[in-house]
Amino acid sequence: MTTTTAEQATAPVPPRPDGAKKKRRRVDLRQYGILAALAVIILLFQVLTGGRLLYPGNVSNLIQQNAYVLILAIGMVIVIIAGHIDLSVGSVVATVGAVAALSMNSWGLPWGAAVALSLLVGALIGAWQGFWVAFVGIPAFIVTLAGMLVFRGVALVLLTGGTISGLPRSFNAIGSGTLPSTGTPDLITLGIGALASLALVVQQLKGRADLRRLNLPRERTASFVLKIALAVVAIMYLCYLLAYNRGTPIILIILATLVLLYSFMLSRTVFGRHVYAMGGNLYAAMMSGVKTKWVNFFIFVNMGFLAGLAGVVSTARAGSAVASAGQSFELDAIAAVFIGGAAVQGGVGTVIGAVIGGLVMGVLNQGLSILSVDAAWQQVIKGLVLLLAVAFDVYSKRRTGR
Amino acid sequence: MSEPILEMSGIVKEFNGIRALDGVSVSVQRGEVHAICGENGAGKSTLMKVLSGVYPHGSFDGTITLDGDPVAYGSINDSERDGVVIIHQELALSPYLSIAENIFLGNEVQRGGVIDWNRTNVRAAELLARVGLQENAATKVLELGVGKQQLVEIAKALSKEVKILILDEPTAALNDDDSAHLLGLIEQLRTQGITSIIISHKLKEIRAIADTVTVIRDGRTIESFPVEDSDEIETRIIRDMVGRPLDHQFPPREPSIGEEKFRVEDWTVHHPIDVDRIVVDRASFHVRAGEIVGFAGLMGAGRTELAMSIFGRSYGSGISGRVFKDGREIQTRTVGQAIRNGIAYVTEDRKRYGLNLIGSITVNVSAAALGKLARLGIIDRHREYAVAEEYRRQMNIKTPSVSSVVGNLSGGNQQKVVLSKWIYSGPDVLILDEPTRGIDVGAKYEIYGIINEMAAQGKAVIVISSELPELIGLSDRIYTIAEGKLTGELDRAHASQEDLMRRMTASRIQGAQPS
């Protein structure tokens, strides 16, 4: 979306024959801004931890440990673009985790069926909340605050306060396992990295060729090449690190799929467009024939589904289900979305931004843990980072007169 | 009547280079009811905002003297301290607070920050008695109808030792009884020495209670004269209000009018909250293919309500009536249904209902017809861009690129984006509500051209406007609407501004009954 670049019309810019190109370039600068913040934080911790942050084992850990934030942030960014909020996802994670564990250990379901059931339960919970928000018209803040209490309670009831462990190993692999490996370095991981890089390059070149064919404005060649080069380096470096650990985490494949799928959905489909339109101006969306109630409903069904997935993943990672699982996950996800550049009043935000925001939170978590910073102080630091990120956003908007 | 209590002279107020007030002068005598009259957009409300300090001293030119002393108000608080109190058209009461709390809001009966509730309630009761409102002062304002809320506003003004009470269209939202009561109250306040300025275009009302009327047109004072209850006065006011010559330029057009395209029968709409109030009363009209039909009505007459209720019931409650297209009855119960049936409604309030201001031109243009650009729910972005680009050229939208954010465009260009969006939706019936509001003359001419082009393509075009020269210049036929009822139907050849204005101000109120 170009919605974050309203300022250009007034900002002094060097004269250029083609205004559109100028605008394109600015959009990218803004996206790089979030990325740059992530890079700075990674570098900072790399130095502070004496290089330990990017140890192969730690990187693998970082991904698996923080997968839940990324999954939830993807759902949450959609909720927030549409102008809502979801406070219940942490509790939903706990409930779904309990359902997954019970269905395998007490009801004897195979792990595949248990996962399917878990996702279904998540989606149903989302439908329940979506019903109240969309069709009854209760603010999402209230509905999901109620959901936060209700589903925490349901988790407690299901687990009767105890813990269910001893889950099947194939299930646990979802959270902590890797794809088969050929040893060290793992050639499969390197192969995946090479394929991903190739796909990226091909897709970017094709997109650019389309733009040229249709004579649409394009990014400058230098920045285009630089961007792709950096992305390829990042992908290959990540794969290199993973290849020297245990291989590709299964969760990374799930995450990559989600990011691609949801980015596409938000930017390319009618549904995604309706979400932005409702966040930008709900009345204008209604007056354009958008079925705002149904869009709201599906936004929450989807959030529930992803919360269910986060429940599966975090239960698998922990290897057990406890009623206290998912505590404050909603806050992590919301923070990730706002760090990633979404606007509090809705209408603005991207999946990529939310994921980068989630990675910022993840790197903070990981780095601070490696430095053995006290958990209490970790919270203080994460809170301040969120505040600064949003303050920066507000400041940059005000400066440009929006 | 000696020295005037209020003298405003040579007031000039500009917005972005457009003169809303161009040297207005008004002189109000002590203890009179002074009516200020003019078409929508003539500058009445702006003038009152200048007077009450909403536009602070320094943001306009000209002088204001009160009781012979020049005044310079920096805010509404300053003017209220001098006893100049304005009651806006949109009432500014806090619905969840009680009547008493509202009356003393910002002016609490207190000692050291602690409110004295007993004295508050006693004084509120006194004030309520003075305005003739029989309600408990502890009643919450949301439980009151609009008429009673209006009285609370006046009580609030009285609590501030008001010298000059300004009422902006006070009866616009009131029923007959409430209007009569309010006008009676204004009479009564006059006997207590309170000067009132009322902005109104209900001529019957002005005849009934005003002592003097000042007519404003295009930001200038036309004349000021004493009012007596006669038809001549009404004629004179109308002439002054519309006296503008038909100097607008309209692109040439050869109307080619075909069969009846669109027909509405017995359309009745009730207010969405005050469900007993009828906002549109059994309206029936038709539009033929290639015809441009104007709807002339003053603000609050029910024209927007009529259009929005037809367009997917976007306004109102208890809607009844039938809609036909090409002779077949169609349903327009939801916006989606209306659009699928080939109806497009271009709103009068583009910022609220028309545009995603933080979105690009591209996403706004495609917003009402995404289905055309998508396959299996996936938008063809290249085609979308091409469509936006096409409309940018066709409509001459002045922008560096179609990726620009709509909020940064000028009013005229924003309007072209809204028009593009609806034209792209491929309507057979195009309803344009104040299509040239707040845009400059050049862009107006372009928009007239676009409207003509739509008619030439055989669409049925409805133009709602309060600018009479515009309606006469554009339309083949004009309906007038007043207080929810269609009060006339005129061919362009027979339509004069005076005649239209007379029908637009036709009123059910047969004069007020001062008590």
Automatic annotation (TrEMBL), chain A:
UniProt KW keywords: Cell inner membrane, Cell membrane, Membrane, Sugar transport, Transmembrane, Transmembrane helix, Transport
Name by which UniProt lists this protein: Xylose transport system permease protein XylH
Domain of life: Bacteria
CDD domains the record matches: TM_PBP1_transp_AraH_like (cd06579)
Cellular location(s): Cell membrane
Lineage of origin: Bacteria, Bacillati, Actinomycetota, Actinomycetes, Micrococcales
Region ranges (Disordered): 1-24
Single GO cellular component term: plasma membrane
Key word Hydrolase present: no
InterPro entries: ABC_transp_permease
Topology of this chain in the membrane: Multi-pass membrane protein
Transmembrane segments: 32-55, 67-85, 92-109, 115-142, 149-167, 187-203, 224-243, 249-267, 297-319, 331-364
Pfam families associated with the record: BPD_transp_2 (PF02653)
GO molecular function: transmembrane transporter activity
Keyword Signal: no
Record function comment: Part of the binding-protein-dependent transport system for D-xylose. Probably responsible for the translocation of the substrate across the membrane.
TrEMBL record, chain B:
Signal peptide positions on this chain: none
Domain of life, source organism: Bacteria
Domain ABC transporter: from-to ranges: 6-243, 262-508
CDD domains for the chain: ABC_Carb_Monos_I (cd03216), ABC_Carb_Monos_II (cd03215)
Bilayer topology term: Peripheral membrane protein
Subcellular location: Cell membrane
Alphabetical keyword list: ATP-binding, Cell membrane, Membrane, Nucleotide-binding, Repeat, Sugar transport, Translocase, Transport
GO cellular component: plasma membrane
PROSITE patterns found in the cross-reference section: ABC_TRANSPORTER_1, ABC_TRANSPORTER_2
GO molecular function, a single term: ATP binding
NCBIfam families (UniProt xref): GguA
Full protein name: ABC transporter ATP-binding protein
Source species of the chain: Arthrobacter pityocampae
